[in-house]
């Protein structure tokens, strides 16, 4: 990434109107861009280093069978710690002279090479034993993958005693020969340390930690047993109808079958759960060596916000400050803030944030504080003196806290000023009218703060670049809300910095772990799997949630169970924030394919025979294909290959303009020219921007050679214009996908369909933390929006039920995506099933006939299997039983309220074009801790669950009263009905608790509507009563005379 982007002035303009205004002075003189690119001919396919040569000057060849390129260090590591075989042909490695001896090698020349073996293995063995042996037991470690296949490490070849005995024998032999004396011990310590460091740097950057078999195997066995029991249970339920309550029986069976299918969709994607562990020290040894240029790849960070009055600027400022203070090379980090509301309040707040960052960033780096968002650092209840040894820390912390409080006061003053907009509109400090006074009709705006050309910190060091972006908006254009804003950030970042990776954060999600980017780089910069990853997803963690998490805001079951299960298949789904993307994956390219092993040729036929059989044609075809791959332009017309991004494509070199590429095709026939290079095809996909198109061909990022700041700013304004995406594939195949309010699920689904895989990274210290609504109404509206997005996807062409079957989406991954879009429809079955207990109690009927012994066994076995599955799931995941129970409760609460409304709203929106919005009216919140938890906001979503609670309570009272009146014989059938009624009430208890509030008062309108609906339903049912036999003959009345 070049370091020459522009800083200083706000630039606003509209490409369609051919306008470009610099509202503050912009310095035109900038340093020319510099770009380092190194090319090597022979690269190790495991670690990415040069293979090197042997002592005789020949290239080192690890495998003599297929010649797969592996360096000597990786060869030795594979023989000593891995599978001892070639990653490509799986032939066992033969031992080279002077290399380590492992079990299974031939015993010839034992003494000749033992000295080299001891010298090379000395530095690594003690370390590996300390790592892999705890409590006297050897623990196998699982390391990174080779050619997409994971391999497991084996136990040490020798234990401590065997190794010491082996070394002593070697020393005895050497002393007898006079080659070594006792005084020679311990020499060349520095060389051994260097060898150890180099060997450590070549180790995998991460490892896969499988769930212990003692935990996962019983879990899988119980799942299979539960599936078998479920089949026998349905067999019994379908073949034994309740004739006296036939309608209730039919409804209950349909609901139970739907619940069973939903369980299958949710359960089986959790069949292969895994954990992952990263090695940040190895990442530093490999890419951040002292005395060498830092080789970590740049990252562009996206922060999106819409309305600063609803999303407080102080929260956004803390997110930005945590990004600017991240533990990553400052010249390789750029923070882009998208202001989709064109608010001058956010613009001024970012200017204040940039000024405060000049003092905050060096303070964070000097004392290594965590977290690096000042609001949460200064006010969290921790021992801030822990591990701090500098005597100046306390003094500097007090001064910094005072400066932060002054910074908050200035932000609060800006917010107070923004509450009332002047009639003539906002005016900037220099008297210029604010371009975004009309939020629906304004030009695009860009302002660059800090960076190499901006202000330095108080210690005179460079700071990461901060860029304010507000895309152009005009009446009559579709802007696609957050997805459109994110796509605008993708384009403007590609023009200004073009980092190969992008971190996406919501404005209320700050970086809680300053090494978060390095955690992602352990996967994205892995030489084996890095190029095949579309993104690295981190779990969402939240601040400010009550201790009991009444409404399951933490969503622990999803992030610690479901996501780990998906990580073992094709990768986790994208959840909208806390995700580091591979830029190439967002451009709609296919993942690179591994080079296939060349086919074996038969030596029994002469060479000319092979040529006659088509060898010449294949060679010519391969030559053309290779030329296309070299340019990165092969297969422009292939939809499946998505512009033919091949693994062998070289795009780390300088980018060329499209015209220059066309000039390089001279000498080829016209047909080949047209297939290789078509500027119109690029423009149809990416839009009318040559600079942006050129950036898409640069796989490792960086800016084109010879670009100047003025032209880049003008091009950046162009790519955020409102009409740029017209007649392109933005939002269809490229970038964030349009068509749903949950664009995150849709975007990740498209990537997985192309064959990309994702990684779930969950370090011990959470990398990102955010805020979540903790009161009942806001939580239900949040769930409503998610469910509405799933319904929209279900009714679109991107529905996982029928989309992408010709792609590379794995079956279990497809089941997981199907589950994410059909779960709102479970609300229909759920609300019917929660109503059945009350109906049974009021009518005296039941959905199950009299049980025999065999039927009782199936019922008991089903309930036991459900309980055992949950317990075993908690064992391997580490989730607490309280979190699991809260999740079960809110599944019912959300299902009978928000999910039900989402289904009807989605059907109205997609089929009838009616967009229904549910408004929330807030009352005053309590100032005490978690006061918002007791804040009540009226919403129609509260009516269905309240009605269900009243119905079941009335049913319980009616059922008990009936049993008392009818005597002892009626108590037996009553228990089954009461069990289901209490099941509903217990699951809805958090809802009832939130409805009552702290003062145990409920708004009159909720009580009136709920009682009215429950009463009407009960009276209508008693009046109709379909279970009483209907007389068809004449009506006979008692005459009153004794016959």
TrEMBL record:
Pathway: Glycan metabolism; plant cellulose biosynthesis
Residues annotated for UDP-alpha-D-glucose binding in this entry: 304, 310-311, 340, 481
GO molecular function: cellulose synthase (UDP-forming) activity; zinc ion binding
Annotated ranges, domain RING-type: 44-90
Cofactor binding mode and count: Binds 2 Zn(2+) ions per subunit.
Name of the molecule in the record: Cellulose synthase
Annotated active site: 340, 744
InterPro entries linked: Cellulose_synth, CES_Znf_RING, Nucleotide-diphossugar_trans, Znf_RING, Znf_RING/FYVE/PHD
Family to which the UniProt record says this protein belongs: Belongs to the glycosyltransferase 2 family. Plant cellulose synthase subfamily.
Reactions that this protein is recorded to catalyse: [(1->4)-beta-D-glucosyl](n) + UDP-alpha-D-glucose = [(1->4)-beta-D-glucosyl](n+1) + UDP + H(+)
Binding residues for Mn(2+): 482, 506
Keywords in alphabetical order: Cell membrane, Cell wall biogenesis/degradation, Cellulose biosynthesis, Glycosyltransferase, Manganese, Membrane, Metal-binding, Transferase, Transmembrane, Transmembrane helix, Zinc, Zinc-finger
CC per GO annotation: plasma membrane
Keyword GTP-binding appears in the UniProt entry: no
Membrane topology term: Multi-pass membrane protein
Localization per record: Cell membrane
EC number(s) from the headed UniProt entry: 2.4.1.12
CDD domains (alphabetical): mRING-HC-C4C4_CesA
UniProt KW ATP-binding keyword: no
């Amino acid at each position: 990434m070049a370091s020459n982007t522009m800083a200083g002035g706000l630039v606003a303009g509209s490409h369609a109107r051919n306008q470009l205004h610099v509202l503050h002075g912009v310095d035109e003189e900038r340093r020319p861009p510099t770009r380092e690119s190194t090319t090597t001919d022979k690269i190790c396919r495991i670690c990415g280093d040069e293979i090197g040569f042997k002592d005789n000057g020949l290239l080192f060849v690890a495998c003599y069978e297929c010649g797969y390129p592996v360096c000597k260090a990786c060869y030795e590591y594979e023989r000593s710690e891995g599978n001892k075989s070639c990653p490509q042909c799986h032939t066992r490695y033969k031992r080279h002279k002077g290399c380590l001896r492992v079990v299974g090698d031939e015993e010839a020349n034992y003494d000749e090479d033992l000295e080299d073996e001891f010298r090379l293995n000395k530095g690594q063995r003690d370390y590996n034993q300390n790592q892999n042996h705890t409590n006297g037991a050897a623990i196998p470690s699982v390391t990174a993958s080779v050619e997409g296949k994971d391999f497991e490490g084996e136990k040490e070849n020798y234990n401590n005693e065997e190794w010491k005995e082996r070394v002593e024998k070697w020393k005895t032999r050497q002393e007898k020969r006079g080659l070594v004396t006792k005084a020679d011990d311990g020499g060349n310590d520095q060389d051994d340390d260097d060898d150890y460091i180099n060997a450590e740097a070549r180790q995998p950057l991460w490892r896969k930690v499988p769930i212990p078999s003692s935990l996962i195997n019983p879990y899988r066995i119980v799942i299979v047993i539960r599936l078998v029991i479920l089949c026998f249970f349905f067999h019994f339920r379908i073949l034994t109808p309740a004739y006296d309550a036939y309608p209730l029986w039919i409804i209950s069976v349909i609901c139970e079958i739907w619940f069973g299918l939903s369980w299958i969709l949710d359960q089986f994607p959790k069949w292969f759960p895994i954990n992952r562990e990263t090695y940040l020290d190895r990442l530093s040894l490999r890419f951040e060596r002292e005395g060498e240029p830092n080789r970590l790849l740049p990252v562009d960070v996206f922060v999106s916000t819409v309305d600063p009055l609803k999303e407080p600027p102080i929260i956004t400022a803390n997110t930005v400050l945590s990004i600017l203070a991240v533990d990553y090379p400052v010249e390789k980090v750029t923070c882009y803030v998208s202001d989709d509301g064109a608010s001058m309040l956010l613009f001024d707040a970012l200017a204040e944030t940039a000024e405060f960052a000049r003092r905050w960033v060096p303070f964070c780096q000097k004392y290594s504080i965590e977290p690096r968002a000042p609001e949460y650092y200064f006010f969290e209840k921790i021992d801030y003196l822990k591990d701090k040894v500098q005597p100046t820390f306390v003094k500097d912390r007090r001064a910094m806290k005072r400066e932060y409080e002054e910074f908050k006061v200035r932000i609060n003053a800006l917010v107070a000023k923004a509450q009332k907009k002047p009639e003539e509109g906002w005016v900037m400090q220099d008297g210029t009218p604010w371009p975004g006074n009309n939020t629906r009709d304004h030009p695009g705006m860009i302002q660059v703060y800090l960076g190499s050309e901006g202000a330095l910190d108080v210690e005179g060091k460079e700071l990461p670049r901060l860029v304010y972006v507000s895309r152009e908006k005009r009446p009559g254009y579709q802007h696609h809300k957050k997805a459109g804003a994110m796509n605008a950030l993708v384009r403007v970042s590609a023009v200004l910095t073009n980092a190969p990776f992008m971190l996406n954060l919501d404005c209320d999600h700050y970086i809680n772990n300053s090494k978060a980017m390095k955690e992602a780089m352990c996967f994205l910069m892995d030489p084996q799997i890095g190029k095949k990853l579309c993104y690295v997803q981190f779990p969402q963690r939240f601040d400010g949630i009550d201790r009991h998490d009444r409404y399951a805001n933490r969503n622990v079951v999803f992030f610690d169970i479901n996501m780990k299960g998906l990580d073992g298949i094709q990768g986790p789904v994208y959840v909208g924030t806390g995700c580091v993307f591979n830029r190439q994956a967002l451009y709609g390219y296919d993942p690179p394919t591994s080079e296939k092993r060349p086919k074996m040729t038969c030596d029994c036929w002469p060479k000319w025979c092979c040529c006659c059989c088509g060898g010449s044609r294949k060679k010519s075809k391969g030559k053309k294909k290779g030329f296309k791959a070299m340019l990165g332009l092969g297969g422009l017309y292939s939809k499946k290959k998505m512009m033919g991004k091949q693994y062998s494509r070289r795009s780390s070199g300088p980018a060329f303009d499209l015209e220059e590429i066309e000039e390089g095709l001279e000498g080829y026939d016209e047909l080949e020219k047209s297939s290789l290079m078509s500027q119109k095809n690029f423009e149809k996909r990416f839009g009318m921007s040559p600079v942006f198109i050129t950036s898409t061909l640069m796989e490792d990022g960086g800016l084109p050679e010879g670009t100047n700041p003025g032209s880049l700013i003008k091009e950046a304004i162009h790519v955020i214009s409102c009409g740029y995406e017209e007649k392109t594939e933005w939002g269809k195949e490229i970038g964030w996908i349009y068509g749903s309010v949950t664009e995150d699920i849709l975007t990740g689904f498209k990537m997985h369909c192309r064959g990309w895989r994702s990684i779930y990274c969950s370090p011990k210290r959470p990398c990102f933390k955010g805020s979540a609504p903790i009161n009942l109404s806001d939580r239900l509206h949040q769930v409503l929006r998610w469910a509405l997005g799933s319904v929209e996807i279900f009714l679109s062409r991107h529905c996982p039920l029928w989309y992408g079957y010709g792609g590379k989406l794995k079956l279990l991954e497809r089941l997981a995506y199907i589950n994410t879009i059909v779960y709102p429809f479970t609300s229909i079955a759920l609300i019917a099933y929660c109503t059945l207990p009350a109906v049974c109690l009021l009518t005296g009927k039941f959905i199950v006939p009299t049980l025999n012994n065999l039927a009782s066994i199936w019922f008991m076995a089903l309930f036991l299997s459900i309980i055992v599955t949950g317990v075993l799931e908690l064992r391997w995941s580490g989730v607490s039983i309280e979190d699991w129970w809260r999740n079960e409760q809110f599944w019912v609460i959300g299902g009978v309220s928000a999910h039900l409304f989402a289904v009807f709203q989605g059907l109205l929106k997609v089929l009838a074009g009616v967009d229904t919005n549910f408004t929330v009216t807030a009352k005053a919140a309590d100032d005490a801790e978690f006061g918002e938890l007791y804040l009540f906001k009226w919403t129609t979503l509260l009516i269905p669950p309240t009605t269900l609670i009243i119905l079941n309570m009335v049913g319980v009272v009616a059922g008990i009263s009936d049993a008392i009146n009818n005597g002892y014989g009626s108590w037996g059938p009553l228990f089954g009905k009461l069990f289901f009624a209490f099941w509903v009430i217990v699951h809805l208890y958090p809802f009832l608790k939130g409805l009552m509030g702290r003062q145990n008062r409920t708004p009159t309108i909720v009580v009136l509507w709920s009682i009215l609906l429950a009463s009407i339903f009960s009276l209508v049912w008693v009046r109709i009563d379909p279970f009483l036999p209907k007389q068809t003959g004449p009506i006979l009345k008692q005459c009153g005379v004794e016959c």
